[in-house]
Amino acid sequence: MCAEVSLSSLGEFGLIDRIRARFPQPLLPELGIGDDAAVLSPSLGMQLLVSTDLLAEGVHFDRSFGPARLLGRKALAVNLSDLAAMGARPRWFFLSLAIPSAFPLDDIEGILDGLAEQAAAHDCILAGGDTCGSKHGLVISVTVMGEQSPELVLKRNGAFPGDDIWVSGWLGDSALGLSLLQEGQRLDGEGSPIARHLDPVPRLLLGRELAQASLARAMIDISDGLLADLGHVCRQSGCGAELMLEQLPLSERFRAYAAAQQTYPWQMAASGGEDYELCFTASPDNRAAIREIGKKSGIPVTVVGKVTSCGQVRACLPNGSIFQPSSSGYTHF
Amino acid sequence: MCAEVSLSSLGEFGLIDRIRARFPQPLLPELGIGDDAAVLSPSLGMQLLVSTDLLAEGVHFDRSFGPARLLGRKALAVNLSDLAAMGARPRWFFLSLAIPSAFPLDDIEGILDGLAEQAAAHDCILAGGDTCGSKHGLVISVTVMGEQSPELVLKRNGAFPGDDIWVSGWLGDSALGLSLLQEGQRLDGEGSPIARHLDPVPRLLLGRELAQASLARAMIDISDGLLADLGHVCRQSGCGAELMLEQLPLSERFRAYAAAQQTYPWQMAASGGEDYELCFTASPDNRAAIREIGKKSGIPVTVVGKVTSCGQVRACLPNGSIFQPSSSGYTHF
User: Fold this and answer.
1) How high does pLDDT run on average in chain A?
2) Mean confidence (pLDDT) of chain B
3) Sign, CA torsion B106/B55/B90/B83
4) Which residues touch A108 (CB under 8 Å, ≥6 apart)?
5) Which residues of B touch A155 (CB under 8 A)?
6) How much is the pLDDT for A232?
7) A287-297 and A204-212 are packed helices; what angle lies between their axes, rounded to 10 degrees?
8) A27-36, A298-307, B41-50, B273-282: which range is least confident on average?
9) Residue B2 pLDDT class (50, 70, 90 cuts)
10) Contact criterion met (CB below 8 Å) for A132 and B332
11) What confidence score (pLDDT) does residue A2 get?
12) What's this model's pTM, rounded to 2 decimal places?
């Protein structure tokens, strides 16, 4: 590549101009990029749902694993997944980038492309942010804001003994994809475990439909692994859970991998991070209606266990014994 | 120090528990730390003002320059200053920390102390955030949210030819403080240039009073230096400005430094960054009322020039010639 435009020749305001040009801005009387603060008009009577995630190079992502575009898509997806878990509709997001001065401008453009795609797909408006230099590695910090009626917001604390425990989609693909990437494999087509790791899809429609229909009692997105995240729901609801591991929804590729390894990789399916599927609890009376919503949203939903009153999360292996995870989620420090 | 507790022994959830214990949480029916997203109830009919800043070690701060507590105070102050510049009342903030695993826990505690002090001083509630590891250096990302009535929000685009240009407080202290820190000096008491650099005070009361009284037409906070930030106001208002440099408010310590150097350090006063004072424009008819509000807020306010129709920002030296800044603000890349 010849005469690559560098970040330093573009400058901070040049970069901000490029960002602004790529994202539709809030409509008047709102105000996005370009003042000290964004000016937003929340819908009357709605509650505001706000989530923030910071992604640091070398900790959350390895740029050699895939194209910059997917990194941009994922940076917003993981935040939108939190809104999905509250049953909210996305409205606005804020983007902060700390960028090493030698960072390739093409990769910045790729990240912005991915963010813009994800934002457009979910009708989420870039309303502000911050750009600055970084001595070591790229940092992407995203704050996302959504809305929902107060009586429909789905929290973690509503699970009730006897509830079914549901999960959306397929578990373990992302952890398997990460492990394949670490072994040196690279992106190999849509829907593969590697694609599911690099480009997770936030389950916004499913989450919102479940909230609007008041069918679920508690919901969380699976970012730290099902066992860890279900543990949060149980602690905050003052109850426990019994999972049937053979009921966990596994993709065909995941099953093929497990068969080739001659093992059932429960560890990845039950404790692997970054699935970004939804886990929710609901009265057994709602089963048919929930399956209907799954169909409408285009995402399979599966009952994987029961909420109990015992205060523990137990995961049963097919032979009836209790599964002991080697770790129940990702440890940061 | 013996048996220092390390971050890795505390773990992510231990750290989150410590953070949660230190900050008052939103009152029901709102929800702060502990679910997928914070659940907030904006006041009916108010607009929401949102600003975000990311601070990276080695770029925005040098931990050897002062105590961790002041770093925590400043991380929130620079965001609150953006709300001050819109005339908003702070409501909630979100805190993301990327922390190297060897980072001293005492310094984390210091940062949290400083954040908690600043938050309490301005009635701003910690409603969520993210904590994770960092391979290189500490990263602090803060998003702050405030409110104001739509008709009272003060933007950058309202300046009008003939308006007075006002600034609050004193200019240049922060740039001087940074330069002294870089020369090896350290914190030397309240109100000194070094203290003003390490512990800026957001002008929230002044900003809000000006907005509530509808006395100002455009406002910005001075983070990149007066000339650069006034340039933003002029561009967005489609006008220009003429500054009288000898009218810039300079602190006694700044004057003493300038006298000792036998120079007038206009560069620091007019283009030094991180003053976090307010710059606003207003009709000359409002002078007495604005001085009154300055008194009420306890912050001096000074007329430093006029808005013009020419489209340029000109800064006049005492001898009538035009000042040429060597740089009109901080460059990030």
Assistant:
1) 93
2) 93
3) positive
4) A7, A15, A68, A97, A99
5) 31, 35, 39
6) 95
7) 140
8) A27-36
9) very low
10) yes
11) 39
12) 0.94
- As its CATH architecture, domain A164-316 has Alpha-Beta Complex (3.90)
- In terms of Cα–Cα distance, which of A276, A315, A107, A279 is closest to A178? A276
| Pair of tokens at residue B137 | 């250096």
* Contact (CB, 8 A) for A306 and A234: no
What pairs with residue B131 in β-bridges? B97
Nearest-CA distance from B275 to chain A in Å? 15
Q: Between β-strands B89-99 and B125-133, what pairing exists: parallel, antiparallel or unpaired? A: parallel
Closest by Cα among A149, A132, A121 to A46: A149
Angle at B155 between CA B215 and CA B85, to 5 degrees: 75
Closest CA relative to residue B50, chosen from B96, B74, B83, B89: B83
State the nearest Cα–Cα gap between A177 and chain B, in angstroms: 22
Q: Tell me, what amino acid is at A301? A: V
Contacts of A139 in chain B (CB under 8 A): 54, 56, 98, 139, 141
To the nearest whole angstrom, how far is the Cα of B319 from the nearest Cα of chain A?
A: 33
- Alpha carbon A181 to its chain's center: 19
d(CA B333, CA B330): 10
Could A54 and B130 be called an inter-chain contact, meaning their C-beta atoms sit closer than 8 Å?
Answer: yes
pLDDT for A333 beyond 90:
no
On whether the CB atoms of residues B58 and B24 are closer than 8 A, the answer is no
CB B205 within 8 A of CB B279: no
Contact B139, A56 (CB under 8 A): yes
CB-based contact B76:B144 (threshold 8 Å): yes
- Check residue A330 and give its pLDDT: 61
Q: How far apart are CA A69 and CA A198, in angstroms?
A: 10
ipTM of the complex: 0.93
- The per-residue pLDDT for A1 is 40
The CATH class that applies to domain A11-148 reads alpha beta
Q: Which residue of A has its CA nearest to B100?
A: A333
User: Which DSSP symbol is given to B23?
Assistant: S
Q: Where are the domains of chain A?
A: 11-148, 164-316
Judge: A133–B333 Cβ closer than 8 Å, yes or no: yes
pLDDT at residue B7, as a whole number: 81
Count of CA atoms in the C-beta half-sphere (13 A) of B82 = 28
Number of H helices, E strands in chain B: 10, 11
What's the CA gap between A250 and B295, in Å, rounded? 68
What's the CATH fold of domain B9-150? 60s Ribosomal Protein L30; Chain: A; (3.30.1330)
Whether the CB-CB separation of A206 and A299 falls below 8 Å is answered with: yes
Query: HSE (CB half, 13 Å, CA atoms) of A11?
Result: 6
Q: Which residues of A touch B47 (CB under 8 A)?
A: 29, 39-41
pLDDT (tens digit per residue) in A124-167: 999 999 999 998 899 999 999 999 999 999 999 999 999 999 99
